[in-house]
Design a protein that fits this description.
Creatine Amidinohydrolase; 12% strand; 16 helices; five-stranded mixed sheet; 2 domains
Length: 504
């Protein structure tokens, strides 16, 4: 169990924020722990515990693959904010319950600037100045320090061997310093900006150092970091390819486990668990909460409860993605017939959604608008809804700005950007995102769906309870779009053949 560190005293109205001492920082992790869980260390133990350890390896850690790409990212930030010093925290642990924290994931802006992923590095801060870049983190202490065995937050006995300054420098490819130097080295620096959302304690420190808040300037930094990530470099694209490949393996594992999911009850949980197992094995984790929706649950767009049964004859809508160690995630959806075969009604709905997706993917071309894939896909959806007689108007009327009747059966948009976050670059301005042109290097999803709730009396009875979504991750290129997740079957016949092979 880890304890959330805080570097600043509570900022009460009318009370000046004061920095905590090193001793306060070191002891803060334990301030709220019950005395009945503490055991004092004897002097004899303190002498014994520091002895008899093998020396640390002198072989430097492997340099991050992303280290070849981060300098260009720093350059883009300096161009956007000339003369400014940019403070980008990794963030702290987040409390799950009482003194138990969630597994750490760094803030995505920190991961993009440093190349660090996985669970590195809680509480760290990267500073991009006009002339340098430096990573501030808490390096490992000597084994002779009490922190080695007593600190559940930083101690090697508790959290494993941490990097030295030299090792972290070799890993990231740029200078590193002790986190405890950060305040002094930022003191007196003009034009400070901070990613406010990442770490409230670091934000409080920066606000105090610059004599007040500059939230507008900080908001501009956060917005720009989102916009700079809209176009992926080659490293990022390759990581998304890896994420899609790992996701394929996870989906195949689920396909082979469908009989067990049916037989054991609460099959949605079984499916979620199988996919999560492979996500943790092949990558860092799932990129977002898995949607494992059987039957009518597929008509709840963000069904993450995953507590229902999976029944023969139903469809399973699985929306899941593996986040690889660099933190780039896939986002893929397939809708599978649990018994291996679509019914006539299920197949008809599926084929319409597939046709809509194909139309959307065809519109994923550089120079087209971001909304063009949605417009292409939703027209196919609307034409089908008109065909089965559920629209109270014409296709053109529902597609008009003052229409939207089709949204009863497809509420969501067709695309979003994908990268370090499953809904990537969300802080970008509308003119850079929704109203922008597609550019080579962008990666977006195309995910139309049709959702006919079992309680929807406007829908022909044969379609009630059927929910279908098909989603793939599409790279915008100079030419034809590239489907990064194309290794998973999409046509109904291919899906059925795939499921047959999985059972065999």
């Amino acid at each position: 169990m880890r304890f959330l560190p805080t570097f600043w005293n509570v900022n009460l109205p009318g009370i000046k924020l004061m920095p905590m001492s090193t001793e306060q920082v070191d002891s803060h992790e334990a301030k709220d722990r019950a005395d009945n869980r503490k055991s004092p260390y004897s002097e004899a133990f303190k002498k014994f515990i520091v002895s008899g350890w093998a020396p640390y390896s002198k072989v430097p850690p492997e340099r991050l693959a992303a280290a070849d790409w981060t300098p260009a990212r720093w350059a883009s930030l300096r161009e956007a904010f000339p003369g400014a010093t940019l403070v980008i925290p990794a963030g702290p642990y987040k409390v799950r319950s009482n003194d138990c924290d969630y597994r750490f994931r760094p803030h995505s802006t920190f991961a993009w600037v440093t190349g660090l992923g996985e669970d590195r590095e809680p509480d760290a801060v990267v500073v991009v100045s006009p002339t340098s870049v430096c990573l501030y983190f808490r390096p490992r202490c000597p084994r002779t320090d009490e922190e080695f065995y007593a600190s559940s937050r930083y101690g090697e006995m508790w959290v494993g061997q941490r990097d030295s300054l030299e090792e972290m420098t070799a890993r990231v490819g740029f200078p590193c310093r002790d986190l405890r130097q950060l305040r002094d080295e930022l003191s007196g620096v003009v034009s400070l900006r901070v990613v406010r959302e990442a770490d409230p304690d670091i934000t409080a420190m920066v606000d105090e150092l610059r004599g007040g808040q500059a939230q507008d300037a900080d908001a501009e930094l956060f917005r720009t970091l989102s916009e700079l990530r809209l176009v992926k470099d080659d490293f990022e694209v390759n990581e998304l390819r890896r994420a899609c490949e790992a996701t394929r393996v996870g989906f195949e594992a689920v396909a082979s486990e469908l009989p067990n999911a049916v037989a054991g009850g609460r099959g949605e949980r079984w499916v979620e668990g199988i996919f999560s197992l492979h996500a943790r094995h092949l990558g860092n984790n799932v990129g977002y909460d898995t949607i494992s929706a059987g039957g009518d649950n597929a008509n709840t767009l963000h069904w993450i409860r995953n507590d229902g049964d999976i029944l023969n004859g139903d469809l399973l809508l699985l929306d899941a993605g593996v986040e690889v160690n660099s933190l780039y995630t896939a986002d893929v959806t397939r809708t599978l017939p649990v018994n291996g075969h679509y019914t006539d009604a299920q197949r008809r709905v599926y084929e319409v959604v597939l046709a809509a997706q194909e139309a959307g993917i065809a519109a994923c071309r550089a120079g087209n608008g971001f909304l063009d894939p949605h417009r292409a896909a939703i027209r196919v959806i609307a034409e089908f809804l008109a065909e089965i007689g559920v629209l109270p108007c014409s296709v053109e009327e529902t597609l008009a700005d003052d229409g939207g009747y089709h949204r009863r059966w497809m509420v969501h948009g067709t695309s979003h950007h994908l990268g370090l976050d499953v809904h990537d670059c969300a802080a970008a301005r509308r003119e850079k995102y929704r109203d922008a042109k597609l550019l080579p290097g962008m990666v977006i999803t195309v995910e139309p769906g049709l959702y006919f709730k079992s309680t929807d009396l406007l829908v022909p009875e044969e379609y009630r309870g059927i929910g279908v979504r098909i989603e793939d991750d599409i790279l915008i290129t100079e030419g034809d779009p590239e489907n990064l997740s194309a290794s998973l079957p999409r046509t109904s016949k291919d899906v059925e053949a795939w499921l047959a092979r999985s059972k065999g």
